[in-house]
Amino acid sequence: MGFRFRKSFSLGNGLRLTLSKSGPSLSFGKRGARVGVSKRGIRTSFSLLGTGISYVKERRFKKP
For 39-61, how does the pLDDT look when each residue is reduced to its tens digit (9 = 90+)? Predict the structure, then answer.
């Protein structure tokens, strides 16, 4: 089992900066709908609050 690290900072107006071992990421949106950008790609997520049902779509950046 390995160690994990993640720290999230709210920057206001639905903007969030997350720092982790794999690198920083930036996301924006409100509860139930968020878009995040990291070095891996773009992640869009939607959820029906209170139900546990969610949908996530990831678009990976191509390696040069």
Answer: 999 999 999 999 999 999 999 99
Within its chain, how far is the Cα of 36 from the centroid? Answer: 4
Q: Are 23 and 39 in contact (CB under 8 A)?
A: yes
Q: Closest Cα to residue 37, out of 10, 29, 5?
A: 29
The 3-state DSSP class for residue 24 equals coil
Q: What is the DSSP letter of 34?
A: E
The CA distance from 8 to 22, in Å, is 14
Spatial neighbors of 51 by CB under 8 A, at least 6 apart, are: none
Cβ–Cβ under 8 Å, residues 28 and 14: yes
**Predicted structure pTM score:** 0.75
Whole-number pLDDT of residue 46: 96
